[in-house]
Write a structure and sequence with these properties.
With 120 residues, the protein is mainly alpha-helical. The protein has eight helices and no strands. Helix content is 75%, strand content 0%. Helix 5 runs antiparallel to helix 6 and helix 5 runs parallel beside helix 8.
């Protein structure tokens, strides 16, 4: 999933869509054409530097793969793992000290894939 997510990032896709698209491909999900457009609305921390949008894409993927209850549980596990590494979920705080979000995207893809593997 990580390699695909980074590939889509290189192609200019935003952080949420790269995770959603890479995951959809890995797990055989068909996304509607509007999925990318929908992800554009949540780019750059929802436009106000809020939650990291790679995490948003991961949560969207979890929602497609699991029941609501399971997806919410996995979302919280993902947030804890991510926060342990970056000490925040905030897009501006995370991106303030890096030129690109390549490392962040790679980490979100890896963490998400690991969580999914444990629960599928």
């Amino acid at each position: 999933m990580k390699e695909k997510a980074l590939y889509y990032h290189e192609q200019g896709c935003n952080c949420s869509f790269v995770i959603l698209k890479a995951g959809a491909e890995k797990y055989g999900l068909t996304l509607p054409e509007e999925a990318e457009q929908s992800c554009c609305a949540v780019s750059s921390g929802f436009g106000v530097g809020s939650i990291c949008c790679a995490l948003v894409g991961a949560v969207m993927l979890l929602g497609l793969l699991f029941s609501e209850e399971k997806a919410k549980l996995l979302r919280m596990q993902l947030f804890v793992l991510f926060h342990d590494k970056y000490k925040t979920l905030n897009c501006c705080a995370i991106s303030a000290h890096r030129e690109t979000c390549v490392e962040v995207i790679a980490d979100v893809a890896t963490l998400t894939e690991e969580l999914i593997a444990q629960h599928l």
